[in-house]
């Protein structure tokens, strides 16, 4: 126990347990005494919760019984303080792992969740989630070795996001697995099992592999009926039809609970049928626990308990909100409401202390099951070496996943491009932007490869010219539009041969004290997401949790010499989120030493002489979250970026336009708005006007233009579909996205990604964003003609579907039906094909989805190769609908069709069968 006490921070209250608490303690001890192992507490009789021979729940109850009321309340918030007298170390439940361990320093960054969904590859997701959990375990134990117990350092991860991406305007749709409940469930179950250390088939792992202990905890969020608008998420109340609730919004959650055995569920901010989703009796008690048998714990979204009284006004006071949430099943509060107000609620009689004990015992059981209280030697997962983090095999997997995620929307024969091309122009605002790889909720990749870099690495003998051409969106002051000062024009001191500037990193905001890190940074172009640094331009060491620099409240001084290549008028530009100052030869040129909500830049024009060295110094400080800093310049005679791009296109043999969106404009509840964007959501699904103008001008040069889109959602690209010969969707493709895009562009990989969302036409009149009725939404209910349908994706070869056979044409509700089809690669290239099974009623007796995905397999075939592909489904599971009158699922007897093909809009072969009445 000395190890626990050594790292236990503040002690909290030391008030002795009351009589009622003592009674709970005695009951817990009696329960333990009744267990099979006699005398199990002999080694530590006063701390029975440390007896590893006893069940986790009994140990947890014993520990809770020793806490005071104040201590219990504090343990029910995400940043749980240490209780030194009990040997309980501090623990923060808040961790993120959406597409790699996030916000905790270096980690492998896979494609964003929407990109992983586009692979339609569950076995691949098994490998991804296992890799993420390996890195998570390794990082956690490395943090413990350093005595750290902070945020983003634990074992409880708040992923995956399995909300249904019902509307393309939602900025957080990128975090989901798309618009279909079945695809979401299959990808989500795989992700949960991989994180929690369960075999892909759901069976427990052997004891030697950690079978007694869970590897991590995954969290299914946000439960339920939550998908924007972001600006209104703290106030709106949704009243979906019961049919939509049970047929669209709940199935993926049910699958993760009943199949995936997910250990945690996060409530949403909004109300559902008038109840806060983070304190809903219907959702959390009646459905989650009573109907689905959920055994884990529920947490609120961050500060959602505040919303219950402050914004939703369901109750009048914070103590009433805290009591309501706990009573209805939310054990853990992300925020401070529980710690501050649950003791008050108990004293006022709003909730009993026994109810707190029940909730907290569930939380402590979780920590026990993760091995947090047991000797590391007894926990196999604790032996995971830090060497697995960012291992070469993980980097290779990130590239493979990115390759599989890329969707070829259109190809008129221009792709794949020849590697013998003489001159290629790469143009567009996301071509050389690391943010276009990452999306949101990301970690720090060791060496992120932008699309420009990936193309250049693939074409060592080709002249690749690059021009940004346009800003990402209209009206956005985009510091990234100005090129960084390149390393050859910087040196850390007079006469130095090393290139770059000397960086001194301080643990204060005012550059005071001694620097804790000193290094030479080749370029100043960094982006840090909430304390998890990402170097935008160079593969350098990171300033963050893996080094001595704190996540927040730090400062940096870069100094050295600037060496202009030619004489003339230069524009020097600095940009940062929070304060910066720029000096040249000791003169203060730019002074913005104050906090800022977002990245902002300033510049100064001045004459510089070639052959002269100028002393340059950039000072910067960061307060909290979303830090960034850069040092850039415009050289004499530089053309405007738009004209430069058109000139590059005219002189090239072909053009690759790389544009779309980044996490800077679509994401979670943003305070900055741009034309077409509001609060992180979109008000316009079209390609931003700045980029559309550039794309049309590139097309007007007469050169073949290939469009590569970085995005987390569907884009209205009607003009591009009609006018350019080839279009790829790369999503936010992760750390090796640039290599993967190049692999597809030049034919090393045949694309086979599929759209997990419908792409709508620009002029499509969409339902109101805040309307949660599923009518005319997603491929399941959409009545119009999509621009590109759900499941769409082309290849560099062709596939034939023949000989569909059903093993029965009549079935009872509980009978299994197997469909088998022969798939043949009829083209000239090896490639994957995603075979998709859809079911639909032929004469529906009630309003139903047009068709529904009920099976998919990603199959690799060589040219001329054939293979039988089979799917098994049951009417009770796959043809059920929600009967609102009966208040339960039902299956209508009658005729149905099983249809197979390459997308929901390209069904190649079908057969009919009949479901008999019970």
Description:
This protein is of the alpha+beta class and 918 residues long. It has a domain at 799-915: Sandwich (Immunoglobulin-like), CATH 2.60.40.10. Helix 6 runs parallel beside helix 7, helix 11 packs across helix 12 (318-327) and helix 12 (318-327) packs across helix 13. Belongs to the glycosyl hydrolase 3 family.
CATH architecture of the domain at 799-915: Sandwich
- Briefly note the structural class of the backbone: alpha+beta
Largest sheet: 7 strands, antiparallel
**Count of alpha and pi helical runs:** 23
Unreliable sequence segments: 1-43, 530-546
CATH class of the domain at 799-915: Mainly Beta
Amount of helix: 10-25%
Rg for CA atoms: 29 Å
Overall, the morphology is globular
**Fraction of residues in β-strands:** 15-25%
Distance linking N and C termini: 61 Å
Question: In CATH, what is the homologous superfamily of the domain at 799-915?
Answer: Immunoglobulins
Number of beta-strand segments = 38
The averaged pLDDT comes out at 91
CATH topology of the domain at 799-915: Immunoglobulin-like
SSE topology:
Elements: H1 2-7, H2 19-33, H3 56-64, H4 69-75, E1 79-80, E2 91-92, H5 113-118, H6 122-145, H7 181-196, E3 219-223, E4 237-238, H8 242-249, H9 251-258, E5 264-267, E6 271-272, E7 275-276, H10 281-291, E8 297-299, H11 304-310, H12 318-327, H13 337-347, H14 353-369, H15 392-405, E9 407-411, E10 423-427, H16 435-438, H17 451-458, E11 463-467, E12 490-491, E13 501-506, E14 517-521, E15 525-529, E16 532-535, E17 554-562, E18 568-576, E19 580-584, E20 587-592, E21 600-608, E22 614-622, E23 627-634, H18 641-650, E24 654-660, E25 677-678, E26 681-682, H19 689-700, E27 705-710, H20 718-723, E28 726-729, H21 737-745, H22 778-781, E29 799-806, E30 810-811, E31 817-825, E32 831-841, E33 852-861, E34 866-873, H23 875-878, E35 881-883, E36 888-890, E37 894-903, E38 906-915
Parallel strand pairs: 3-5, 4-6, 5-8, 10-11, 10-24, 24-27, 27-28, 30-38
Antiparallel strand pairs: 1-2, 6-7, 9-28, 12-17, 13-14, 13-17, 15-16, 15-23, 17-22, 18-21, 18-23, 19-20, 19-22, 25-26, 29-31, 31-34, 32-33, 32-37, 35-36, 37-38
